[in-house]
Amino acid sequence: MSDPVGPAPTPEAPGGQAPVTVAGRLSGYLRGGGVITPLLTALLAFLVGGLVVLLTGKDPIATYKAIFDGTGLNWFFPWISEDDRIIAGLNLQQTLILTTPLMLTGLAVAFAFRCGLFNIGGQGQYLVGAYMAVWVGSSFASMPAVAHILLCMFAACAAGALWGAIAGLLKATTGANEVITTIMLNWIAIWTGAWLFGLGGPLQNDTQASVPVSNDVVAGAKLPVFWGDPELQGLHIGLFVALAMLVVFWVLLNRTVTGYEVRAVGFNPEASRAAGISVGRNYMLVMAVCGLFAGLAASLDVLGWQFRVATNDIPINNIGFLGIAVALLGRNTAIGTMFSALLFGGLLTGTSVRNLDPEVFAPELATALTYIIQGLIVLLVSADILVVYLWRLRRRISPGRRPPPGEPVEA
Amino acid sequence: MPGAPVALELRGITKRFGSLVANQAIDFELKRGEIHALLGENGAGKSTLMNVLYGLHQPDEGEILLDGEPVRIDSARKAIGLGIGMVHQHFMLVPVMTVAENLVLGSEPHQGPLLDYKTAARRTRELSERFGLAVDPDALVEDLGVGAQQRVEILRALFRGAKVLVLDEPTAVLTAQEAQDLFDVLRALKADGTSVVFISHKLNEVLDVSDRVTVLRRGEKVDTVQTEGSTERSLARLMVGRDVLLRVDKPTHDPGDVMLEVHDLEVADDRGLPAVRGVSFDVRAREIVGVAGVDANGQSELIEAITGLRRPESGSIRVDGHDLTGAGPRAIQDAGVGHIAEDRHRRGLVLEFNLAENLSLRSYRGRALSRLGFLSPKRMADRARGLLRDYDVRGGEGETRAASLSGGNQQKVVIARELSADPKVLIAAQPTRGLDVGAIEFVHRRLVEERDEGRAILLVSLELEEIRSLSDRVLVIYEGAIVAELPPSASEEDFGVAMTGGGRAEVPA
């Protein structure tokens, strides 16, 4: 395309306008509303969700209470009965099992955002991590347990990092937009999995030729369960790995040379380039780290409670996608990601068929309610950010168009 | 022309922005079928005046008469309705639509709810043939070159019935040939009875195409003269004026070794067209070399090439004897080049970063601020405290976000950062752009001090007075080439002529 045109920018103030970046905008939100804004966002989403419940003729308050009880978060209340506490404990374990990978896929999106990138590819990065974890975890049965687990995690992280780095590399070298490439990489990951573990696929299980699933992870590679019954999907130690990664994320971003560069590029790539920072190298590195977080999430799921990959589950898994909502609501901070992962983990568990009392609200409808609330949250949080993002995208698609140094406003 | 009726008259237009008077009682007259150039330096008030005419600003005083009738123009829509068309420097076209679609946008011929594309295309063709504006109605705007896009803009104004056409620096984005084509179009419009206001600060173009010239300086009208009988020299005198220089107290200098050596440099702009053409010069230690020129004559590309932000097509750049042609920004910085960026918001600062972080942009990897890849926020803060004090940055501490400082203090932060790296060569691009008088004085004094410390300074500025008062030698750049080297004491006229390409025949390039 030749020199494109667009609406004329408003005349620049002397010295030019501050460049608007996603990271810059987000930082503005943080300063503006602090923790209030995301809380309001979530509250608003729940209110609208309540209206939907009302439309179905059910009681929204009773429904929300049932969902809350379904999350197991009432376990923390001292006044509930012993019987309730046992059930609450079981529910809470499930909530935290889901919170664990959500924290990590949330970080996978948040880290990219901090560098001014939009990583839609958490899902693909998660999936390749899962494939790698299940493959390594179901092989090498004779390895010592700790070494085997670490090897599985490492392999999953490496696979995810590689998947992310592809998008980073494409952006750094050709300028290909990461939104597009990561979406495409998601589909490549999905169909690769369908082939790997499908009927006759190279990694399909060895015992049941008619079932399109992987081999099971061997006992030695399973993550230890520290709360609840390992046979009944108790809570595995992956939770602590995820929590540790929140700390790693914070330190990496705020206390290292790398994080300094990442944030600089996220706020103002042009000034970063002028300061000698290699913007392309940072794009690649950041996408690799994002993939690493997502791949790690997958390994915790596979080694912690899933133990196998089923072909039919691959296209419906959405832990990676949910990471986008988690990061947006969590404002791309470590602590925010933790709480919003808990919120989404709780929602998923609380509205699941198993945990919600059908008398109060039909669970199959409740799942739809989850989607509504999720969707509203994403919409409310991101509407403005996405607009800013697309605005920048439009400018970047225009090759070589620079805001002219221009004369300062004739005044 | 002399006998032609007056199409438009502005009487005593005054426009203030706060305490700033952008236009002071300006009279302006445009005859039917006249090309009237509006000439002046950056900030002289040309655009403000035309924005008043186009309804984008309301004048504080004065009136506008169209065909002798006073009119009130309170919006661009109103202006269009009155037959006033404006072509901005930045085009306002929809790139994914065809020429014909863009033309009829807002007043689409239709059959029922559907666009009558055939009629639109036909009317486009008719208009373009009538004025010799060659464009293909069916071409997508995004596939057109800049010159053709500009023709579409002009066509659109004519399509809406413009009798008065205002062109805001139309040649700034054009190549020389495209500019000539544009002038042919303007002459055709004139023959057809359309009146044209042509805003420019290039003297040769003004002499080439206009009938009369009105010169503005600092918001006031200096004079309106007939183009016939005017020369580049006479127009330059009107435009630049004879104001007293803001003299900087500057001891005589004694230049040392060559620190920056640019040889036969060729740099292309974003469109791939030559922007810097065969530029060669040296800057010595203890010397300020100024680059004077009208905006967009290759200054930005020259700076970008020297600082490693744009790869030169050919030629060489040497710093203190080391060849750095084509090296990246970091290698060039490490070789001892500091850069006060032209646009501090876009390139000089990370506005969302706090001051300590901004001050560390060139040194965060060094042992003073980080160990084994881990930053020391404490050391960054300590260092920031010292620099903010030394450079008298007010209104913020280390933790203050850069965006919340005033322009002058932001610029001090940039200067503090660049000078703290102890560069041998300092590239100062528009170092006082947008600053108030106090900050300007600080920057000027500092630059002279740094020169005396032994740094080699290349000063690129659009402010001729700044260049003249600070520089030891001045290079004049025009259309990407150094067309003259003048002592700062040379007359304003000499500068004016050289900066607008007039001196080319006399001064060997």
Concise structural overview:
Chain A is mainly alpha-helical. Helix content of chain A is 66%, strand content 1%.
Mean pLDDT of chain B: 87
Assign the CATH architecture of the largest domain in chain B: 3-Layer(aba) Sandwich
Helices of chain A, by number, come to: 14
Strand order in the largest sheet of chain A: 1-2
Could you list the spans of chain B in which at least 5 consecutive residues all have pLDDT below 50? 504-509
Strand count, sense and barrel status of the largest sheet of chain B are: 6 strands, mixed
Per DSSP, what share of the residues of chain B sits in E-state strands of 2 or more residues? 25-35%
Helix content of chain A: 55-70%
Largest sheet: spatial strand order of chain B: 6-9-10-3-11-12
Could you describe the 3D structure shown?
Chain A has helices at 22-33, 36-55, 60-71, 82-114, 122-138, 145-174, 178-197, 238-255, 257-267, 269-274, 279-306, 319-329, 334-350, 363-397; strands at 225-227, 235-236. In chain A, a hairpin with a 7-residue loop joins strand 1 and strand 2. In chain A, helix 2 (36-55) crosses helix 14 (363-397), helix 4 packs across helix 12 and helix 4 (82-114) crosses helix 13 (334-350). The two termini of chain A are 35 Å apart. Chain A has 14 helices and two strands. Chain A has a two-stranded antiparallel sheet. With 411 residues, chain A is an all-alpha fold. Chain B has 509 residues and is an alpha/beta fold. Chain B folds into two domains: 6-240, Rossmann fold (3-Layer(aba) Sandwich), CATH 3.40.50; 244-336 and 423-509, Rossmann fold. Chain B has 17 helices and 24 strands. In chain B, a hairpin with a 2-residue loop joins strand 1 (6-17) and strand 2. In chain B, helix 8 crosses helix 17 (492-499). The longest helix of chain B is centred in the last third of the chain and has 17 residues, at 437-453.
